[in-house]
Amino acid sequence: MIATLLEVSGVTVTFDGFRAINNLSIQFPPTGLRAIIGPNGAGKTTFMDIVTGKTKPDEGRVVWGEENISLLGLSESDIAMRGIGRKFQKPTVFEAQTVRQNLAMALKNPRGPFAVLTHRKTAENAAKIDAIAAEIGLTDSLTRIAGELSHGQKQWLEIGMLLAQDPRLLLVDEPAAGMTVEEREKTTDILRRAAKTRSVVVVEHDMEFVRRLDCKVTVLHEGAVLAEGSLDHVASNQTVIDVYLGRGHA
Amino acid sequence: MHNSFIARNPSVLWFLAALGLFTFGVTLLSEATGIGLISTSFVKTLGKTLCLCLIAIAMDVVWGYCGILSLGHFAFFGIGGYAIGMWLMYARTETIVLSSLAGQTIPATPQEISDAIGNQIFGVVGSSEFPLIWAFSDSLVLQLAMVVLIPGLLALVFGWLAFRSRVTGVYLSILTQAMTLALSLYLFQNDSGLRGNNGLSGLQNIPGFEATPQATISIIFFLASAFALGAGYVFFAWVISGKMGSVVQGIRDNEARVRFLGYQVEGYKLFIFTITAIVSGIAGALYYPQAGIINPGEIAPIASIYLAVWVAIGGRGRLYGAVIGAAFVSLLSSWFTGGGAPDINLGFYTIQWTDWWLVLLGLSFVIVTLYFPKGIGGLFDYLVRKPS
Ligand SMILES: Nc1ncnc2c1ncn2[C@@H]1O[C@H](COP(=O)(O)OP(=O)(O)OP(=O)(O)O)[C@@H](O)[C@H]1O
Ligand SMILES: [Mg+2]
Fold this sequence. Notes:
The complex is a heterodimer. Chain A is α/β, with parallel strands linked by helices.
């Protein structure tokens, strides 16, 4: 097995002269959890935008997989097909469609228009959808319209869609935002299980949540890595305390 | 599989039943095949309305389902009409020319025949040469192929350029208007090869059926239009059911999210844009032989805007809504503009509907958009209890 699934090195992004990402370098192994924390505007979401092809960096390299493919210049759909799934900061599910339709659309299957047009429901796909629905606790809601779900359920549905894509790397932006304590616990469990077979990167502000994830933590600040290591290790770093934890986030 | 498609979409069956009943009723009441309660000209109006319903469901698929507010689909409709019109005009003129030359002692050479036909057709624009685009006009089969190919190819090229550069929203709508405007301005030119603002005429005369009365021809076209609408309805209902429908509606609601799921959004848009353009072309090819004449004014940008208005009033995002909108508004429009509606005398001012109809339509459009976004079709939601 390879040591590094995704390697971001020396990446810089400027928006109208403002450096949102500043010479950022960060690597992820093929399996396991990683938490990314940092103050508002640190560049966490922008980092995900770069990896998933939404934002083109000015400089740097983003290298993926065994064959060391550069992701720069690939389209969003191409990157997704290579095995990178993403959950957005604001939950984005297809609100006009049912939970089952949302999951079916995400399920790993041929993505071309003609394959989709002639697509037929199979028992195998149905079983996969049922398994994912059970994992995210939406078994009873499969026929409901996604727009009717609670905020937390939408978050889970989006995580479920990620799982359905069966990606090798999951980028999860603030999964616990707006969730109750029990919902957060359930979310941690889902993410930890998912991380057994793939790489899961979680951006989160909630320190309790991060502590429960029990994984390596990377602190971003002003578009670059400020500290990296266990939560206790980074939490004892004076600069981290000054720029982030000291502001009442802990 | 087909059974389950119908089972999952009961509205398709309802629609086909309603269309069948309507068609049957008109046939029984028409002059040619029934008791003559409906005049031939009204049969033509109804047949044309069915064609408008067909382009309306195409518009609903591209706009209501895929979220592309195309303001250019009437261009494809017009192209379909021109394509079939070229054959109709050529073949009929050929018949006339041949019969007039038949009496001569020395048989006419093919060149003389061709010149005579050219003279007849292009005399109005001061020419007798056959332009290159008429190369296949002597062949019904090839011109029928053009009905499908030209709108399809134009949509494919236009859509590829627009979607690839990720033009969306109002900019895309403006671009489609520009395409329509360019096409109609081009056709207005005398040297466009399509008789400038004269357009193509005499299309109601079907070559080979000179002896058949218009009453019969009208009912045949009416039936053909009904069949095309039924087939188009089933086809589009099939396309937007199932997973394709999920992806297409996903693109409408959140294009970026669909991309991050790994779908190539551009390909899907292109697919929907092109098949709806082709169906629009077919609708046009059925419409203009019933109208009898096509001219560049038909392709004017406003026509495509009306199309969007019909679909909005009927209720977008449901195919029967588009049908209702197109039928209701276009029939109402011909009633008002045809002087059917009595003028209203207010004492100090007389409302003449021929002038005021557009104002009424515009107002209705605004009211529907603001207060009844589901349109007329939304009323069905009150009739049918939602399955829980
Ligand atoms: N498209 C854009 N155009 C201009 N500025 C942008 C753009 N996207 C992000 N930024 C800026 O880049 C910086 C980093 O933003 P980013 O969204 O990555 O922060 P974040 O770490 O995700 O913050 P939060 O915790 O609030 O989600 C911010 O200052 C933001 O205003
Ligand atoms: Mg963010």
